[in-house]
Every structure is written in structure tokens, then in C-alpha cells.
Amino acid sequence: MKLAFTAVAALATLTAFTVSISANAQSDPIPYALQSDPAIPDITTKQQQEEIMSLFTAHIGLWLTRDRDRYPYERLITEDALFEYPYADNESVRHIQGRKAVAGMLRALPRAAVDWKIDDVRLFQTAYSDVFFVSYNLSTSEHPYGQDYLARITVRDGQIAGYYELWDRSVTGADSAATAHK
User: Fold this and answer.
1) Which H or E element spans position 123?
2) What is the reported pTM?
């Protein structure tokens, strides 16, 4: 009996450990390549780079979640956050300011796909320790050609204070990831 109890306890511990590893893996930053320019001195720490990538991963998480309304997006951005999408067809989403307005607009965007794939993620440092550029490709299984994006992200006090996103305007059509901003 004691052997059976020990085996059950070991199995429960192993299961809890496996679940914990899986949960942590999902919250880890998206794998990325740091792109550095020898002409710009490294003024950011590894911790700052990981912070921006954690914020970016959480930002992208809104696209990957099944229930956007329950996703805690407001925690990621400052009260006075400014999000800009200058290539958006609809002028009302080109310039959005304020935590509630940004979160509301992003949640209201049409869901063009449910199987987003994010790859070719690159982090670029700037001469300012609170400003980074992140480039990435967003695709779906239906449209593996994807869409290339470049985002300038400004961080303040561990939150996104500014987000300015550009995309490849030559990729068009209803199935393009960029149409979400129309």
C-alpha cells in the first residue's frame, strides 16, 4: 500500500511539474535574433531586451488567444499609450491614444484567421534604451507567404507606451494579415 501511495505521489508531482513547464514555455518571449549595428553602442542590457520581447510576445498574444475579451491586454500598455498604424485604410485606426481606446480597438479588429504563425522575429536596438524596433513575419497555414511587419516600440515602466507599426503594402487582399487594420 505504501508503495502504491508513493507511486501515485510521484506521478502527481511529475504531472504538476510537466504542466508547470508547459505553462512557462507558453509565456516565454518569442524566439528572436538580436540585430545590432556596430556603429551604435550597446546601451541596453539583456534584461531590457528580454522585457521588450516579453511585452511584444504578450502583445501578439492578443492575436493568438481564442477569447480576446478576457485577454488582460490593458496590463501591457500605459494609461496614455499611443498606437499608430499609418498604413491603415481606415483613418480612425491610424492614431489611437489611451489604454481603453487601444485595447478596445485591437479587440474589435476582425479575426482574419485563427492559426497565426509568427516567425523571423528580429529585435533592433536604437540609440535610446527605451525604444526598440521589432520586425516579424505573420502568416497562416492557408497563406504561408505571410506579411512582413516592422514595429517601433517605446517602453516606459515595464509597459508599452508607444507602438508604431508598418507593413508591406504590396501584400494585399482579404486574406492578408494587414487587412485587420482596415
Assistant:
1) strand 117-125
2) 0.75
CA pair distance 94, 17, nearest whole angstrom: 45
Element (H, E) at 5: helix 2-27
Domain boundaries, the chain: 1-29, 31-181
**Rounded to an integer, what distance in angstroms lies between the CA atom of residue 138 and that of residue 41?**
30
All 3 cell numbers of residue 82? 499611443
Q: Each residue of 120-156: pLDDT tens digit?
A: 899 998 889 899 999 999 888 777 778 899 999 999 9
The CATH number that domain 31-181 falls under is 3.10.450.50
DSSP class of 51: H
Angstrom distance (rounded) from CA 37 to CA 135: 15
